[in-house]
């Protein structure tokens, strides 16, 4: 896979993940490429005041293997959108199951390994989530 394509596919996942949780301000998204895996972290503001340095934030990190990213990159845009939806929904479910609550400061962070099932290409690009 060409580096440009790879970077674009990772950016697509970043954008999808950035919309996973409601935020009072623009979520912060970062990527860490560790050769065998890529970690995408998103943090979002749950409470904000006049002094933004005191904003309450939650965060979630998702670790993707290169094999998962290659599977994701190998399908058409319609199927990638479906996979993005699976990633976002999987992240939301994992956050809810972890007991993470956006109203409890310090109790709302999550580290998650991406599920291989998210990357099984759907038969058609019309699958509904």
The gist of it:
The protein has 129 residues and is α+β, with helices and mostly antiparallel strands. It is 35% helix and 25% strand. The model has no long low-confidence stretch (mean pLDDT 86).
Could you describe the 3D structure shown?
This protein has 129 residues and is α+β, with helices and mostly antiparallel strands. It is built from 3 helices and 4 strands, in the order αβββααβ. A 4-stranded mixed beta sheet has the order 1-2-3-4. Strand 1 (28-33) and strand 2 form a beta hairpin.
Provide the succession of SSEs.
HEEEHHE
| Span between termini | 28 Å
Integer average pLDDT? 86
Q: Biggest sheet: strands side by side, in what order?
A: 1-2-3-4
Proportion of β residues?
15-25%
Q: Name the shape in a single word.
A: elongated
Helix content: 25-40%
Q: What summary fits the major beta sheet?
A: 4 strands, mixed
**Structural class estimated from helices and strands:** alpha+beta
Outline the fold blueprint.
Elements: H1 3-18, E1 28-33, E2 37-47, E3 56-65, H2 66-73, H3 77-97, E4 109-113
Parallel strand pairs: 3-4
Antiparallel strand pairs: 1-2, 2-3
Helix pairs in contact: 1-2, 1-3
Task: Give short descriptive properties of this protein.
25% strand, alpha+beta
């Amino acid at each position: 896979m060409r580096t440009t394509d790879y970077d674009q596919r990772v950016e697509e996942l970043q954008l999808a993940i950035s919309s996973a949780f409601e935020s009072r301000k623009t979520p912060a998204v970062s990527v860490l490429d560790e050769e065998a895996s890529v970690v995408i972290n998103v943090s979002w503001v749950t409470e904000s005041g006049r002094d933004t340095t005191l904003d309450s934030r939650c965060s979630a990190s998702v670790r993707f293997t290169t094999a998962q990213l290659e599977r994701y990159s190998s399908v058409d845009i319609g199927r990638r959108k479906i996979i993005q939806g699976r990633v976002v929904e999987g992240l939301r479910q994992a956050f809810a199951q972890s007991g993470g609550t956006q109203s409890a400061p310090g109790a709302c962070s999550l580290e998650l390994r991406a599920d291989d099932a998210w990357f099984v290409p759907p038969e058609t690009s019309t699958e509904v989530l």
